[in-house]
Amino acid sequence: PVPVAVQCSAEIELDPSRSLLTYLEEILQWESDTIPASDTRDRASLLRAATAVTVVAGLRSLYPLVLRRIATDDDPAWAVGLFQRHPGALSPALRELLRHADLRVRRGALLAGAFATEDFALVVEHLKDADEMVRAAACRALGVIGDARAAPLLIQRLSQGQPSEQAAAIAALAEFPAHALQILEGCLGPDVPEPVLIAALEVLSRRGVARFEARIVELSRHDVPAIRRGAIRAAAQLAGAKAEITLIRGLADRHLPNQVEALDLLVQRDQGKTIPTLAALLQADDSFRCHVIRALGHMRALEAVPNLESLYSQCSRHEQVEIMLALTRIGGPRIAGFLRARLSESETEIRRVAARGLATLVDSTHLPLLLRLAGDADWCIRAEAARGLGRLRMAEVHDVLLTLARDVEPAVASTARDALALFRRANGAAA
Q1: If we measure between CA atoms, which residue out of 337, 344, 342 comes closest to residue 353?
Q2: I need a surface site. Which of 12, 78, 118, 224 has the fewest CB within 10 A?
Q3: Stretch (H or E) spanning 294
Q4: In the structure, what pLDDT confidence band is assigned to residue 345 with cuts at 50, 70 and 90?
């Protein structure tokens, strides 16, 4: 059976009145800066609907309008996705559209087309297009095809192309298997310009190539921070002790963004090896320690709890806050006691974060404490108490939540009402 829309396409295209085609053309030519603010949402919905009708029905005469939008819109992914879900729509007209006089149509066709190996020569032609953005789109299309013959051509764009071409070549090369990327060796030499070297490392940060391990380790000690960062990211794609050491060495990089990058990448690797390393870094009194504390929390590093607790009294307030947040994420039987002790401190921010942690880790043993916090002078703590009481779902909390729902502070009242609704749903389900 032929889809209804396709059956209608010939009738629509050949209609002498062109009433529907004219209507769709008008919509597809709308410009965002000419749409009244009050009409933006309806126009956007109509634009998407008109695009869908054009693609699904295969209305070829309107394809150039759709492809121009793909070439120029800030977020064309939804329109590209329509062509990808209906690859048969664009393919018959693709060769004609790739030779269209309007460079926007050529670029849109390269971005939206479903290319195969037999289209290689057709796409390669556009690497010589007069327009930079068309050349960049051709690079991306070569990445979709994945033919190894494209690797040298993309390396050339990586080395000699404009910024948009370089970015597209990086994305395309990252689609190739590791053995096809050995040609990158010429972009990693000592005499290569820094932008080219950084671009090559960006490719290797997306697709690991073990052959370049020694050079990546060497570049992780480069004088330029951006090159060191690229090498750190490339090392994260490799297995083995040398890559691990490169990342750990990155934690001591003299450029803070590189330290943070190395930390994030280590967190994604073997936590059994990483946690002891990070726990040892808690002794370093510098700005990086805050990131280490946060990472241990995200890793839910239970073995680091004693180190974090002992550090608390020796560090600044913002680190103390990070320690409490990290311990809340980690959880465990001893965390609640630590947070209870923080409620007796004088700093408002510390008390609020402690209350938030207790409300998050709440269990039935916290009921007396939460009832007391419900009468605290600080509205933020009363709100956290309401949140925690709602999560307990115990009969004893109902009247207290009713009282908090009438609190003079709107945030407390709103939180208490939400908690009451949760409480009543839970009790209704139980009944």
Answers
A1: 342
A2: 118
A3: helix 289-298
A4: very high
Name the CA radius of gyration of the chain, rounded. 30
Q: What is the pLDDT of residue 153?
A: 94
Find all residues with CB under 8 Å of 126, minimum gap 6, and list them. 98, 106, 110, 134, 135, 137, 138, 141
Structure tokens at 18: 């062109």
Amino acid at 39: D
Contact of 60 with 105, CB cutoff 8 Å: no
Using the Cα atoms of residue 179, residue 183, residue 189 and residue 195 in order, give the sign of their dihedral: negative
Q: Which residues make Cβ contacts (< 8 Å) with residue 400, sequence separation at least 6?
A: 371, 374, 389
Q: Is the distance from CB of 264 to CB of 288 less than 8 angstroms?
A: no
Distance CA 203, CA 177 (A): 11
Cα–Cα distance measured from residue 246 to residue 226, given in angstroms and rounded to the nearest whole number: 15
CA-to-CA distance for 225 and 229, rounded, in angstroms? 6
Alpha carbons 386 and 382: distance in angstroms, whole number: 6
